[in-house]
Amino acid sequence: MKLRFNKIYTFLALFFVLGNMTAQQDPNYTFYRYTMNIVNPAFAGAEHRTEFMANVRSQWAGVEGAPETQSFIASTHLGKKVGLGASVVNDKTFIETQTSIAVDFSYLVRWNDYTNIYLGIKASGNSYNANTDGLTTFGIGSDPSLMDIDGGITPNVGAGIYVKSRKLSLAFSAPKILKPKRLEEDEGTAKLGRNKMHMYLMGAYDFEIARNLLFKPSTMIRHIESAPLSVDLTLALKFNNIFEFGPSYRLDEGFAGFVLFSPTDSLHIGYAYEAALNSSLNNTNNGTHEILLKVSL
Description:
The protein is mostly beta strands. The protein contains 4 helices and 20 strands.
C-alpha cells in the first residue's frame, strides 16, 4: 500500500508541476545549439555539409513513465543556396505519446560578405495518442470531451529565419503554426485542449579569447501561449575544436552541465545532465540525461 501511495504521489507531483510550471508541450534540449533543425527549418543545409544527428533525452530518470524523447535529424545542401532537411521526433510523457515527422526547405540570401540570411519553411505530420485510462489509475479526473481524441495524423506547417555572421548567430521560428487537439490539464482535471504555439528565439556569439580557445555564450527563449517565458542561458568553452564544456541555467527551472567531444571534424559526441530547482522533483527522480551524436560528411 505504501509503495502504491508513493507511486501515485510521484505521478501527481510531476503531472501538475509539468502542467503548471511552463505548459511546455514540446521537448526542451540542453544541446539546443546542435538541435536547431528540429525547431527552425532555416538551419537545413546552413552548414553547407551533409549532417546526421541523433539525440536521446531522458527526463526525471527513475520515474516510471517520465518524459523521454528520441530525435533524429538529417540535413544537406543543394548547390550554394538551397538546403533540405528531415527530422523525426518521438516523445513520450506519462500517458501521452507523439511522433512528428518533418521536412525542411531553406533558401540562402546573402546580406554582405560576412552575413548570410537563411529563410526556411517546415511541413510536418504528427501522430498523437493519449491513454486516458491511465488517468483513472492515478485518481485524476477527466472531462468527457477526451473521447474526441482520435490519435490520427495531423498535418502542420512552420517557418523560421536564421542570421549568421562569422561570430554572431540569431534565429527566430514557429515550427508548428496549426493547433491540433491534445490532452490538457486544467485545475486538476484532464480535458480536451489544443496544442499551444511555440516560438523560439536563439542568440549566440563566439568570442576568440586565445588562438585555440573559444568562449561561446548563447541563449534560447521559448514563448508558449498562456505560459511564462522559458529562458536558457548557456556558457561554453571550446578547446582546439575538440573539447567543449559548460554550464546552463533554465530560468526558474533547473541547472545543467554538458560536455561535447569531437575527436575528428566529422564526429561529435555529447552528454548533458540537468537537475530541477523544484524540490518535489529532485526528491522523486535521478535528474535528466541527454546524449548527442552528430556525424558530418
